[in-house]
Amino acid sequence: MRKATWVAAAVVGLALLGAKATLAQEKASSTAAMTPGCTNTTVDTFGKNEGIEYRYWMLKLQKAVKEDDRKMLVDTMVYYPFLWNKPDGPVQIKNKSEMLKMYDEIFTPELKDKIAKQNVKCLPGDDQGAMVGGTELRYAKFSDGDFRMTTVQPPGKTMVSKLPWE
Length: 166
Hints:
single chain; 166 residues; alpha+beta; Nuclear Transport Factor 2, Chain: A; 46% helix
C-alpha cells in the first residue's frame, strides 16, 4: 500500500513539475514578444517562425522601395482592395492600375524614408499584422501564406473604424 501511495505521489509531483515547466515556457514566449533592445511589442508575438517571416518580408519591401521596383510592389506586395487613409478621408484602391496611378501620392518620399529606416529587429506587430513608421504602413500574412500591404495612412491619423464601402 505504501508503494502505491509513493508511486501516486511521484506521478502527481511529476505532473506538477510538467505544469510548472509549461507555465515557464508560456511566460518566456509571452515576454519574448518584447524583443531585447526594442521598446515596443514586436512581430515575435506571432511566434518565432512568423516573426522571421515578417522580418524577411520587410527586407524585401525595403529592397523594392530602394530600387523603386513599382511592378513588384504593386503586383505582389499589395492586398486589394487597399486602404489609403488620406487626411481628408479613406480611399479604397481596388486594383493594380489604380495603385499605379496613385503610387507617387501614396509612397511619398517621407513614407519611403520610414520604410528604409525601419529597424527590422524591432518590427512592431499587433493583431492586424506588422507596422512601419508607427502605423503609417501595415502589412499582414494572409491565409495563402503570402504577405501584403493592407493600409497606408498619414502620421498621427487614427484608423477609421467603419469604412464607407463596408
